[in-house]
Structures are given as C-alpha cells and as structure tokens.
Amino acid sequence: MTDTPDDGYRLLRVTAIADPGPHLRRLRLEGPDLARFATDDDLHVRLWLPAEAGAAPPRPTLGPDGRPLGVARGMAGAMRYYTIRRIDAAAGWLEVDVVLHDAAGPGADFARRAVPGAICGMSGPCGHGVPSARRLLLAGDETALPAIARIAEGLGPDVAGIALIEVDGPRDVLPFDHPPGLAVSWIFRRDAGRHPLAAALGPLLPGFGGADDFVWIAGEFDQLQTLKPGLAALPRARQLCVPYWRRSEAGTPRS
C-alpha cells in the first residue's frame, strides 16, 4: 500500500459557481493536464473534498494496483464520485453538477460553501459510458441527470430510445440536447407515489432486450433494487444499473 497518488490526482480550483436549478449547483473547476479526463468512455471522477472551508483537500491512499482505497490515513475530508458534465481540456476547465440534498453530506456541503478560489482534489477518470447501440433506455433521478445529459448530447443523430428522469418538480427540469429519436420524459416526485421512476421503467424494460439495445439506469439504491426482476430478463452485457446514493432509514440521503 502506498500514499503516493498515481491515479491522476491533482488539485483543482473553483472558478465559477451557478445554480441551473433549485436543487443543483454547478461548479467550474480549473486545473492542469485535463486531457485524460476528456473521454466518453469514463464519465466520472473522484472528488477529494476538504472537511471544512479553507482546509486542504485529502489525498488518497492507493492499493497495490494503484486504485484508491480511501482518504489517506490521518487526513480529514471525504471522497465522492461525480460526473463531468462538460470539459474543455485545452482551456483547462471542467464542470460538475452537485445535487443539494436537504441533509448534510460532504459533496453538498462543499458545493454550498464553495467560493471562487476554493480547492478540491480530483482523480480518475472512472466509471463507464454507453457502448454502441441503436436504441437506448436511459433513466435516473437528479443525481444521474448530468450523466444522462452528457450521454444524450454525445449520441449520433440516428440513435433512438427513451430517457426518463425523476426530479422534484417542474422547476428542476433542465433541457439538454439529444437526437430527435430520443424521447425525453420528466417524472415529478412531488406528484407521484413511492419509487415513481421504477414504476415508469418496469413496463418499458421488456422492450429493450435486443442485441442493438442498451439500458442505462442510475439513482437511489432502494428504488433500483425493485427493478432487479425486470433487469434479470435482459442480457447482462446490454445493461448498466448503478446506485448513486442511498436513502437512510430516516429518509435522508447517505452521501
């Protein structure tokens, strides 16, 4: 085990802050040598977040294979995964969207207190994009919206399918570019019952089992668990279902 990061770790500085929606904060981060992150094969990065304003961000402890095992011993702070929403490696910046959960959490706390000049660490890239497919079923809640939007914006003009996005209400709708054959629908949580995204997805899954189809789903753990029977009937190589966060017994996010 080593404490010498070689997973692309570098320090980034917050240079701009925007709120594209009432529950979403967009941070523009600038730093050196971002070319390795400008890929559609790996959409995500690890952000290493300081424990409090003005503190130094933690560094990762790496295993023998060079993969991060967590925050280095003796350092305060946390690591969270985020999707690169936009990147201009030549100009030296990228943007991430952070959901401002009501409950406290390292990511939301950092985003809330962020000011230009705030520092965080970043390593990666990691995660998976979407393989070649003629039809896609994309689905998720607001935590998955940055990835869904980035995937959709990178699709060819002939790709068709469905994108379902669960958000709190109409003010949280954030339009994005997509091929004309991709039908985008928004599900409003405040008007629905328990697990509204899963309820809408269930009837659609059997229609996306073809060799040229791909199903990509991300969101809250317990909601995604209800989709297991439907996903089990689809080819494993043509699906990706990833829990991005988990609601606690008290109903607050574990993030």
Automatic annotation (TrEMBL):
Any Pfam family the entry gives: SIP
Organism ancestry: Bacteria, Pseudomonadati, Pseudomonadota, Alphaproteobacteria, Geminicoccales
UniProt domain FAD-binding FR-type: residue ranges: 7-132
GO molecular function, one term: oxidoreductase activity
Superkingdom: Bacteria
Family: Belongs to the SIP oxidoreductase family.
Native species: Tistrella mobilis
Name of this chain's protein: Siderophore-interacting protein
Residue ranges crossing the lipid bilayer per the database entry: none
PANTHER family (UniProt xref): FERRIC REDUCTASE, NADPH-DEPENDENT (PTHR30157), NADPH-DEPENDENT FERRIC-CHELATE REDUCTASE (PTHR30157:SF0)
